[in-house]
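**Protein record**
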Amino acid sequence: MAPEFGDVMSGLGTELVLCRSVRDAAAVLEWVSDPPAGEPYVAPARRRPYSEEVGADPGRLRIGLMTAVPGGQFETHPDCVAAARNAAGLLESLGHGVDESYPASLDDPEDIRNFLVRWTGGVAFSLAWWERRIGRSIGPEDVEPCTWALAEQGRSHSAADYLRAMEHAQLTTRRAAGWWADGFDLLLTPTMAIPPVPIGQMGSGRDDDEPLLPIMRATPCAIFTAGCNVTGQPAISLPLHWSDDGLPIGVQLVAAFGREDLLLQVASQLEEAQPWADRRPPTFAAARP
């Protein structure tokens, strides 16, 4: 996030792009992978250009499969379970081994509470940053009710609360990394616990009695991906499955820290075996040539 920021959410977020092909993802990652001086979060240096990983043989991998929502808070939608299980079958057909296994640390009931201490603190920071940028105070009338409620929650936490949340994240990261160190190469999950929802369904909190309802409604969309926000491990989401309604259902692959190369290798295998680039929704935005 240089040059303006080292991070905004205490390391919980980073940015790349949405791509139609694994080749394009590799190319963009190549362009942005050299960290600027002083960057606080740096992945190990790549062994070769990421573009060379597309089509490279990853060998036979051991892959863990997780379809149940971390912590068992609610049920994964059947379409999302089917997406992950179909991807597991496809991976096995490519010669990989798939076992129903995942890092036990992902079920820690304290994960969400500590995640929200950091996330809400980040929202409060963001509003304070914009206040400095525009030269005036920001009030509840300037932002969506959910945003304001998150910022208020963030302001209620102490520095000790923040450090406790960071300690928890570091312990979670070490425990999760142990699962990969014990012999697994990748973790396979649904990308989301529910199929894609119509635009606007999450709301802004403006029409709700509880302004935090939008973030609660959005939880199933992030429940499988949030663990990577905490551990800092690379992950990739691939549109390998489609519901009976024609909606794309993503699957997520997670690698050990610094193994973006392995993700690109396996993703390109899956893309070749089950292409998706020709799929187009009936209505979509496209740039003019």
Observations:
- The chain has a mean pLDDT of 93.
- Helices lie at 22-32, 78-93, 111-134, 145-155, 159-181, 213-222, 226-231, 260-273.
- The longest helix spans residues 111-134.
